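Fold this sequence, please.
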Amino acid sequence: GNTIKNLYMSGGTVKFQSANEEYQTYSVPIYVEDGTTNVIELATHCYMNSALHGNGDITFKISGPRSYFKRTSINDYTGDITAEGQDSDSFLIHWSQWGSAYKNARFNLTGKRIYMTAKTTNANNHLGGLSGNANARLICSSKNTSNAKCTWTVGYANSDETFAGQINNNYYSSQDKDP
């Protein structure tokens, strides 16, 4: 279980680790002080169930292949979210889909190869804003499902951003890697 009741961030870094590569579940509410820049280093495999609150910015450093936003609530969060891939194939995956609760969220995908996807094969995804480098990918499904179709609707936050990555209806497979 959790050993802390709340996590308050006012600039700084929190690092989660797993001793044996098992999936970790984070369910502690995270309060981010307005105007601050914060870093959360996620374990190699994890489920993020935490509610985010506040208006500071958070960078999630994704060091392993899979980090799931499972039941993450951002209804009370208005800061920017950066997902920074630390490995050659890092995934920020929503357990079902990036639904209407994410319409105000602005995401920045950066670092080494970073994939943003949903586990649901026919997802209807909504993002407030999207920016990212050339290594960023929005793909349809994290599962090897060739007939999956999904929709990405971006721009609800009415912000100016640049996304230099790729958006496609593919699912992840070894063929998706660049030569």
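The chain has a mean pLDDT of 82. The radius of gyration is 15 Å.
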